[in-house]
Amino acid sequence: MSHVIITGASRGLGAAVALRASNLGWDVSIGARSRVDLDTISKLLNPKQNNHANSLDVSIEKSVTEFFKNAVNHNGPASAVVHCAGIYGPFGPSNSIRADEWIRTIETNLMGTFYVARSAIDMMLEHNGGKVVLLSGGGATNPMPNISGYAASKAAVVRLMETLALEVQEHNIQINAVAPGLLDTAMLDEVIKAGPSAVGESFFKRMVQAKSDGADSMDNAVELILFLMNNNVPGLTGRLISSKWDEWRSWDANTSIFNSQDIFTLRRQVTP
Q1: Potential cystine with 108: which of 59, 167, 170, 229 (Cβ 3.0-4.6 Å)?
Q2: What ranges make up the beta strands (E) of the chain?
Q3: What residues are labeled active site?
Q4: Which CATH superfamily is domain 3-181+217-259 in?
């Protein structure tokens, strides 16, 4: 195993990835805005590994560059970076929400991804490559009425991921995005708290049902991210992979489906 840097690691999927990776023998560097929650997760990491935690606001470029510098100084260059930090942003029709809150969503979800990915690439170019795993969301492949900042930012994240993957494909750097599904996290609670008038009746009902009947598998999302952290599948870069719907568990070094340039990507489809 080696060193993995994880953002948004104080709760939810980021925390779950950090704990699993640490128990599997990875040295782990974690960052998030909440120092209190970060310290809680730090205490649960495998004490036999080299662990590092530091405050991080991904929407601020200097915060990201300093975080990476400290992580590398503490644990050495990372062979994997997992970017889980993100927010929903404002709920409601786009003509009624505050523009500054919408912009804040873009700054966190899109610019934050750009800053993290760029720092990861700079590090990996100096140390023989690595794996970068980003997070998409429901808005990446479908519109999300009343959550437009989130939807727009996540669609942009996937296109950014594809573009960056092409830019570094000759340098042994693989960049992919994970669609983790609907997970039972604080973000789900945030939607329910906002209520149907803010997020829309159908979306609200879906969230409430997920909360009561069981959301998608956190374990599946974690396992897919760990798979991509160790990715040796030919051509598996620049792809959007669903932990729930795609058959990624069957992929290995002999898999040839990624010879197709467009599979598992965002593309415009037209009639033959």
Answers
A1: 59
A2: 3-7, 27-32, 51-55, 80-83, 130-135, 173-179, 240-242
A3: 150
A4: NAD(P)-binding Rossmann-like Domain (3.40.50.720)
